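Just curious: can you write whichever protein you like plus the matching structure tokens?

***
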Amino acid sequence: MKKYVTIEDIAKIAGVSVNTVSRALNNKPDVKEETKKKILKIAKELGYVKNIAASSLRRKISRTVGVILEDSSNPFYAEVLKGIEYASRKQGYQLMLMNTERVYENEEKAIFTFLQRRVDGLIIAPVQTKDDDVRKLVKMNFPVVILGRHFEGIDVDEIHSDEIRGGYLATKHLLERGRKRPLMINSYLFRSAAKMRLEGYKKALAEYEIQFDESMVITTDIDVENGYEALLKAVKSNIVFDSVFCYNDMMAFGAIKALKELGVEIPKDVAIVGYDDIMFSTYIDPPLTTVRIKKFEMGYEAFTMLVRRITGRRKKPKRNILDVELIVRESA
């Protein structure tokens, strides 16, 4: 079993007390400079690593934050995570990450694990099939920030994009270009983002005096293959459409693949708009028109909000809604 170097080991070699070593390692002013240099040199040579866990127990803070994501391999969350990491380094915190694979039970287990680890706070991109776990955290008054989602009826810190506006901008763009029958490939409506983007879709249709038709909305999961299968389903169901608005860019990539296999020209025959503006959206053929979310800023601000809650600088729950932007490329 590996043995970690202790301050007792350093004290023995340096010929000083354990207390002197401790004070030198913590840069206390009452240790002679020559002694401090000697201790630091020995510590480095021995490969000493400070026991943060022990320090955390004494101070009752860990300076560690748990991050729970649906899927960190998703390019959207990868960019959000960059913002969280940047803010954590700036604030002097460490991160612990767990994925739920969009399974609520995994989310519950992740929260329990992080509470066992005594993290100072949590950032959660929730599954949203249930909200019991979030309600428990709020009841505990545990510092938590909900990322990219909104919970009705729960007073909790949240940061997400203006999803209604995003859905509206995407649909309006298609209608402005003369498209009369935009198909929406959406996610399940237990997700707040799907619900709000659909609301934006309906708002744009109403503005152009086009009656909402439920058959023009296909609901599915949020990966590439889901977009592909949803598009083929629309064609097999004889749904007539001249454009497509997808819940996210990943689904749009799948829809584009399906359209190409069917010999449909984009955007001549069918225009397509995605959502998120992940990095690959510029490189797909044709480059994807999409709604840009401030992904890095979302992550950065989520962490900043959490630290203010942890340190007691803010007591009341805050809902931070970030603006979105339509990015026009060749697909529409």
Observations:
- The domain at 7-50 is CATH 1.10.260.40 (434 Repressor (Amino-terminal Domain)).
- The mean pLDDT is 93.
